[in-house]
Design brief:
By secondary structure, the protein is an all-alpha fold. It is built from eight helices and no strands. Helix 6 runs parallel beside helix 8. The longest helix has about 35 residues.
Length: about 170
């Protein structure tokens, strides 16, 4: 499945989010089961299959990492097998995770917030590098940015887990 063609969008990383949303809503309306009640069973199955494909395409394209992966795949690059993290990135992420673990253990919310802001800035810079790579058809640069973004995303996920734990503890009155 090519999510770009499924939603009728050009092969670009830096998509217009409003256009993506509009295309998705339009297709969902057109494929809604209520509009196909008089169709034959095989036509209803085909419509349902197309609706599932549209949902999957939307899920892929609304996320930077999965959109980049689909775009790289469209250009013959398998990011999972072809992009390896460089040692500097691994060391940087390891140090960030150690600092986050320490902040979590000591319940230092200010340190967690500082680390989250630092990683957000790194993520923004990585996204800009990815946009530049795709714009220049430099798929190696885009793939390296994808790898970096993937590691940063995992860090953000850890920060979100800490925030969720804190909210749950507050809800329980702990």
């Amino acid at each position: 499945m090519d999510p770009f063609s499924t939603l009728g969008l050009s092969l670009r990383f830096d998509l217009d989010v409003a256009e993506l949303e509009r295309r998705y809503r339009d297709l969902q309306r057109a494929l809604h089961p209520d509009k196909h009640t008089q169709a034959s069973p095989s036509e209803r199955r085909a419509t349902l299959s197309k609706a599932v494909e549209v949902n999957e395409a939307y899920r892929v394209l609304r996320d930077d990492l999965s959109r980049a992966s689909a775009l790289l795949a469209a250009h013959g690059v398998n990011v999972v097998s072809e992009s390896k993290a460089d040692p500097e990135l691994l060391m940087e992420v390891m140090e960030l995770r150690e600092a986050l673990a320490e902040a979590r253990a000591t319940k230092n919310d200010a340190a967690v917030a500082t680390l989250a802001a630092r990683v957000k800035a790194l993520e923004d810079a990585t996204r800009r590098a990815m946009i530049e790579g795709f714009a220049a058809n430099d798929f190696k640069k885009a793939a390296l940015s994808w790898t970096r973004m993937r590691y940063l995303r995992r860090f953000v996920d850890e920060v979100n887990a800490i925030a969720e734990e804190k909210e749950n503890a507050a809800a329980r009155g702990v």
